């Protein structure tokens, strides 16, 4: 009775999201409101919405759940995770087959028949998907082993640089996490006046404590919803994995939002621009605005195009990103620049009379100039991102399982390359012949190493420095 009451409560909370006409324009807001109303963690709410929304694709199972409420949230989340591996463009006929299979699975045929738990549902659904599409079939144990070896780990090795042996540290993670690591390293370097190299060594060796606070700057459309990509300077647009990591980071720490539209018209009497002005200038320029310079804008200085001391205002229209070198070129009056308000190009005028044009590399110009923005509807974006990532990983691990069975490196790499091209992502596991292929045991009937001296010199001759055969004494 208690279990049934709990399932009915879950159904009352989440079943509205299983309707065919479900449309959530602000997914984050919906999650926040339900979390506040129920006291549940946001991860529970998020998982519940997605799990019940999956029933839109499974009308038989939805009708059964609405009538009998047999499935707990754990059951529905297990179903959602496995069906996600079919990808965001799963065939309707395939989904109909799975719907019929699940409806039959959860329909008892005998009195007091044991009801499958979520783990059993996962196993059975995995077998059904394997029957439908062998390319999605992978061994969960091998996947866990690979991920345990690869994720949350770093590789310490050494390489030769100009004849000198140097230690090397490789850290692999998603771009959101790496941007946070970079922010703490940079902040620690500023606090202690260190190079980035020395800051990393100091932090990892315990010489320095991490900075108490560090910020990462990202760009996103106003009113962004969970699951939609963001732009991280120095890393670009987030892929599905990094987008999920960013959303999880926002659940832990409330982000501070800067309205770039307001910054566009803002002014200050101070020489120093506000943080919002800098953010907008960096988004507009992308890099140092000198022709041919690719130094990222977030590492540049902000130049008053018309000098502050000569009446130039501190506003975005008078602030441009210049690296130290090219800032000096302008300050020394070797060149001056004029922005074209129509195109966003920067025209540089030189003292010898010639000019050059620097095109804008900023995210604003790229985004506003494209007919298909990166962001899409909120709930659909979350579902598409997660399903794409789930299918990609399932197919990648199935390929690696085949490599574990046959040891065919070439076929494995070709299959992974084809998969990566199709999805536009990089699979984090690739074959390692040196460690994956076992060494062949020596033939016990032969010596472990060939006796070249006997095989090539059965008469036991020695060769002296003059290359003359001499008989061995004795």
Automatic annotation (TrEMBL):
Keywords: Endonuclease, Hydrolase, Nuclease. Residues 433-460 are annotated as: Disordered. SMART domains: HNHc. CDD domains: HNHc. Residues 442-456 have a biased composition (Acidic residues). Residues 276-328 form the HNH nuclease domain. One of its GO terms (molecular function) is endonuclease activity. This is Restriction endonuclease. It comes from Corynebacterium imitans.
């Amino acid at each position: 009775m208690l279990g049934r009451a709990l399932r009915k409560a879950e159904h009352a909370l989440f079943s509205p999201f299983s309707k065919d006409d479900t449309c959530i324009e602000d997914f984050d807001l919906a999650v926040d409101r339900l979390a506040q109303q129920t006291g549940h963690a946001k991860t529970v709410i998020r998982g519940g919405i997605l799990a019940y929304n999956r029933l839109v694709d499974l009308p038989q199972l939805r009708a059964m759940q609405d009538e009998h409420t047999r499935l707990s949230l754990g059951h529905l989340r297990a179903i959602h995770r496995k069906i996600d591996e079919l990808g965001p463009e799963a065939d309707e006929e395939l989904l109909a087959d799975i719907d019929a299979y699940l409806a039959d699975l959860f329909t008892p045929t005998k009195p007091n028949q044991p009801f499958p738990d979520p783990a059993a549902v996962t196993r059975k659904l995995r077998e059904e998907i394997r029957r439908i599409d062998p390319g999605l079939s992978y061994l969960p144990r091998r996947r866990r082993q690979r991920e345990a070896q690869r994720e949350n780990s770093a590789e310490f090795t050494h390489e030769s640089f100009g004849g000198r042996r140097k230690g090397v540290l490789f850290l692999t993670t998603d771009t959101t996490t790496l941007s946070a690591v970079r922010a703490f390293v940079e902040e620690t370097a500023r606090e202690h006046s260190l190079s980035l190299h020395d800051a990393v060594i100091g932090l990892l060796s315990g010489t320095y404590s991490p900075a108490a606070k560090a910020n990462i700057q990202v760009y996103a459309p106003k009113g962004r919803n969970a699951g939609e990509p963001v732009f991280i300077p120095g890393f670009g647009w987030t892929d599905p994995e990094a987008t999920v990591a960013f959303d999880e980071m926002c659940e832990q720490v409330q982000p501070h939002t800067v309205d770039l539209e307001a910054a566009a018209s803002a002014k200050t009497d101070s020489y120093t621009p506000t943080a919002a002005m800098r953010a907008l200038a960096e988004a507009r320029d992308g890099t140092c605005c000198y022709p041919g310079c690719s130094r990222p804008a977030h590492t540049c200085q902000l130049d008053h195009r018309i000098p502050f001391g000569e009446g130039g205002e501190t506003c975005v229209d008078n602030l441009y990103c210049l690296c130290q070198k090219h800032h000096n070129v302008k300050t020394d009056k070797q060149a001056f620049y004029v922005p074209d308000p129509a195109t966003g190009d920067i025209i540089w005028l030189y003292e010898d009379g010639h000019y050059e044009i620097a095109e804008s590399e900023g995210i604003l110009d790229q985004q506003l100039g494209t007919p298909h923005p990166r962001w899409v509807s909120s709930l659909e974006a979350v579902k598409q991102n997660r399903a794409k990532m789930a299918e990609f990983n399932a197919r990648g691990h199935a390929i690696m399982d085949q490599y574990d069975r046959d040891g065919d490196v070439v076929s494995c790499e070709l299959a992974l390359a084809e998969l990566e091209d199709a999805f536009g992502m990089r699979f984090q596991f690739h074959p390692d012949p040196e460690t994956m292929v076992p060494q062949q045991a020596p033939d016990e009937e032969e010596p472990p190493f060939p006796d070249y001296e006997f095989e090539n010199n059965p008469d036991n001759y020695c060769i002296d420095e003059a290359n003359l055969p001499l008989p061995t004494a004795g």
